[in-house]
């Protein structure tokens, strides 16, 4: 359940239960003040008044447009932009696995158009940044994602795609040991020796050193 639906459900329950906080005393006739009702979030209020679609529905609709062969490239990129803004929300990013959206998102990394590859990498980076749940879900739902991102970061003909692939890799491995271990499997052994000790995902200096090496492909 997305955050606005959860807020709306709590508000509905609290305002449908009879008020039991008011009690009478036979000696002083005093009453206890009623608890103030929970406030609705702006998003939940908008959905209540306008019957607006949930974030989950918007995410699925955006991905459907992105994947549809009938959608123009310009409209795909608009849908991607909307999708990226939605998954900036932690709850929405964590719902990617539940909604079955990780797999089609990662498949966009192989799209013919560089704009789609770039947006795919960008969205992955946004979803996993500082989000251990999404980091784990990426590896679980799309085991080849990091190897694909690594290949893009080093070999894609478009600089912007390479830059966003590095961003996605950097976001995926920070403070997440399984992702760092997976990425290191694809780094040539001589480069791993050159970088020194970079096997601890919580060592930001070591991770930064690895990311700096990845960024050499951007020049």
TrEMBL record:
Functions as a nucleotide exchange factor (NEF) for Hsp70 chaperones which accelerates the release of ADP. Required for fully efficient Hsp70-mediated folding of proteins. Residues 19-32 have a biased composition (Low complexity). The keyword Repeat applies. GO terms for molecular function: adenyl-nucleotide exchange factor activity. Residues 13-40 are annotated as: Disordered. Belongs to the FES1 family. This is Hsp70 nucleotide exchange factor FES1. It comes from Blastomyces silverae. Keywords: Repeat. It comes from the Eukaryota. Residues 5-96 form the Nucleotide exchange factor Fes1 domain. One of its GO terms (cellular component) is endoplasmic reticulum. InterPro entries: ARM-like, ARM-type_fold, Hsp70_NEF-Inhibitors, Nucleotide_exch_fac_Fes1.
């Amino acid at each position: 359940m997305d955050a606005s639906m959860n807020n709306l459900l709590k508000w509905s329950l609290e305002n449908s239960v009879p008020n039991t906080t008011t009690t009478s005393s036979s000696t002083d006739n005093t009453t206890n003040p009623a608890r103030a009702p929970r406030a609705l979030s702006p998003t939940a209020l908008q959905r209540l008044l306008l019957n607006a679609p949930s974030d989950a529905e918007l995410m699925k609709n955006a991905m459907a447009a992105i994947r549809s062969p009938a959608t123009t490239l310009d409209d795909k990129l608009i849908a991607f932009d909307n999708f990226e803004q939605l998954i900036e929300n932690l709850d929405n990013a964590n719902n990617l696995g539940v909604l079955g959206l990780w797999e089609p998102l990662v498949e966009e990394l192989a799209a013919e158009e560089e704009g789609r590859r770039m947006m795919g990498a960008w969205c992955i980076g946004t979803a996993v940044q500082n989000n251990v749940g999404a980091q784990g879900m990426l590896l679980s739902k799309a085991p080849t994602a990091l190897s694909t991102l690594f290949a893009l970061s080093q070999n894609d003909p478009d600089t912007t795609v390479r830059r966003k692939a590095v961003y996605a890799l950097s976001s995926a491995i920070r403070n997440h040991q399984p992702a760092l271990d997976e990425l290191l499997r694809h780094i040539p052994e001589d480069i791993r020796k050159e970088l020194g000790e970079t096997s601890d995902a919580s060592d930001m200096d070591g991770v930064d050193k690895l990311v700096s090496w990845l960024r050499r492909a951007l020049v």
